[in-house]
Amino acid sequence: MKVKNDSRQQILNKIASLSYSDAPQMDFENINAEIYKPIAGAIEDCFVSEMAAIGSQCYFCNTNEELLKSLGDFIIEKQLSNVYCADEKLVEKLNNPAINAGVKEDMDAAITDCEALVARTGSVIVSAAGKAGRQFNIYPPIHIVIASVKQLFPYLSDAIHALKSKYGEQLPSFISVITGASRTADIEKTLVMGAHGPKEIHVFLLKE
User: Is residue 83 within 8 Å of residue 76, measured between CB atoms?
Assistant: First the structure.
């Protein structure tokens, strides 16, 4: 037993001696955009196309009023009764009685903002710096994202560069790149949506 404990302590001591600088670092800023297909046309059109390809949807809204109406129509169409948002300022901005502030276990959908959007992959980037934290990005069946075209970037490297410019050396402890609803085909090669997160992702993108 003593030998076992000594081995365990040696492992713990080795882990404790490691520093962040010892871990391999990926240089996101120098990810070569050429590994992706070139974007032909407007990046907004590319984002819509890529989202559709992964089973998600983007709603372009020219004005804030159009966004509010589009979101309201979406909630009615989906018959959502428990829609929650952790950001009270965003709740106030959306001005919809169907949207509740806070969090609830049996919510039908959650509304969050995001850090950035990636046109080439149709991805949404979120972080722990947002009011929603981590729970709203993985727990609800439907994840609704409110964003601006100013947050849309051509490639992942562009989005990461913007994050580093925004936060400097104080990057959020958690940054996640969400590319469509989670899915798995581990069991009998049958595709299951929402296996590890929301079954649907919808982005309401404000052009104004």
Answer: no
Helix, strand, coil abundance in the chain, percent, nearest 5: 35, 25, 40
Domain count across the chain: 1
Residue 157, phi then psi, degrees to nearest 5: -60, -35
Per-residue pLDDT reduced to its tens digit, 95-140: 999 999 887 778 899 999 999 999 999 999 999 887 776 667 677 8
CATH number for the domain including 115? 3.40.50.10420
pTM of the predicted structure, to 2 decimals? 0.78
List the end-to-end C-alpha distance of the chain, in Å, as a whole number.
67
Domain membership of residue 11 (yes or no) is no
Phi, psi of 20 (to 5 degrees): -60, -35
Half-sphere exposure of 38 (CA within 13 A, CB side): 2
| Nearest-angstrom CA–CA distance, 134 and 182 | 15
